[in-house]
Amino acid sequence: xxxxxxxxxxxxxxxxxxxxxxxxxxxxxxxxxxxxxxxxxxxxxxxxxxxxxxxxxxxxxxxxxxxxxxxxxxxxxxxxxxxxxxxxxxxxxxxxxxxxxxxxxxxxxxxxxxxxxxxxxxxxxxxxxxxxxxxxxxxxxxxxxxxxxxxxxxxxxxxxxxxxxxxxxxxxxxxxxxxxxxxxxxxxxxxxxxxxxxxxxxxxxxxxxxxxxxxxxxxxxxxxxxxxxxxxxxxxxxxxxxxxxxxxxxxxxxxxxxxxxxxxxxxxxxxxxxxxxxx
Length: 279
Fold this sequence. Notes:
Layout: H1 3-6, E1 19-21, H2 23-27, H3 33-46, H4 48-51, E2 52-54, H5 59-72, H6 77-84, H7 89-99, E3 103-110, E4 113-120, H8 129-132, H9 137-140, H10 147-160, E5 167-176, E6 202-213, E7 218-229, H11 230-235, H12 237-249, H13 252-257, H14 264-272
Antiparallel strand pairs: 1-5, 2-4, 3-4, 3-7, 5-6, 6-7
Helix pairs in contact: 3-7, 5-7, 6-7, 12-14
């Protein structure tokens, strides 16, 4: 999804836009593979309990995910060999988190909906895997003001109707004062305040992919993070105007949840300032 598509010419609202996706392309190594893996592994080596989780009813989903990753050819030889070794399921989960650039979640589909039963999230967007594990998706989304009310039933229905062989992608965004990939709340990274300039703020985009796991009755949920400096956003009149409008029309409870409420007027002013008006 392009930034123009991510920031449409309309008032802010929760988006339920999904596009057909190629899971092989999503999970395949990129030019930044070594750098991303080097950032991921220390979190799993030193704080595996914080950045990985697997319930017993997520083990079959993990094994099917590993099978798919092998079919897609996204695992390097050494990583694939390690996953072949006899070991506990939790260690296989961590090993997959070592091998992939992207984070992943495992959702089990049940009569009542989808439930989070495992995954590795080294680069969370201000949320905690250890607090969400075992909970239904509707419960996971409760913290987002208005999301369940506006889209909860659509999300649940979509997840339950996913079919094998077809993957879907979507993207969402927030603003952050840090370009760190790992924004776990326990790290205490700096927050947005009234002293920030455009050079201090990043548009944090979360690209997601959903893949059905039919053998295990579940879903593989992949997450990749991208950052765009607001300095670059402001250089595009179109993007600056659209982001400013999204901030202006964002409901107050959502702005509070996203940590934007106290600085939204400042950010709108900075985005609308043209280059030749800058001091």
